[in-house]
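Can you give me the bound-state structure? Components:
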Amino acid sequence: MCLYLALNPEIQRKVQAEVENVIGNSFPQLDHRKSVPYTRAVIFESLRCSSLTPIGIARRVLEDMAVGGYIIPKDSLVFSNIYCAHHDPEVWDDPHSFKPERFLSSDGTRVVKCNDLIAFSFGKCACPGEVLAKDQLFVFLTSILQRFVVSLDPSEKRPTMNAKCSITRFPLPHKLVLEDRRN
Ligand code: HEM
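Here's the bound-state model for the whole set.
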């Protein structure tokens, strides 16, 4: 999330403005969430772009089953291609760009629920840590931006949104500068 905000300083400033207006200098509370739609949209867009668990977790099929015209035999291992679903150009406009607006109503005042965002998967096997993870992302993001401006290290090569992929997806090594906003 910090990397995306450093690559997109305009977006970062918008989050900071919203945090300043709604939270000010107080400690961010989960209750603040309902009043910061842009900040929440940034979290959703970070979850989409990063697709932290790109192929979910391997699951084993317990009995022969038919899905979408395919027979999946008992004991097959099944992976869900979350990264692909999050970057499908037929679903997402300009999928490789970081655009929080895609999760906002046209007047920007509301977060729009989107069933195509499946960072935590869905159904019976969905991630049990979803609520905790979203709470933490909110508190960490707002706390960091309350205090710091996050930017790219000018002495380093400009990082990209490319990532290394294994069970989780993570950005290539890069350096960021955190500048205290109170100075
Ligand atoms: C941004 C953070 C996170 C993302 C994107 C994420 C995503 C996922 C995904 C996609 C799955 C696989 C679901 C499936 O197979 O359909 C999963 C499983 C799981 N996650 Fe998370 N997760 C996150 C944070 C957490 C946290 C904070 C916890 C615990 C505190 C957690 C605990 C688990 C566990 C235990 C499973 C396995 C559940 C099972 O096998 O039934 N996750 N997660």
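A couple of observations. The longest helix spans residues 130-147. The mean pLDDT is 96.
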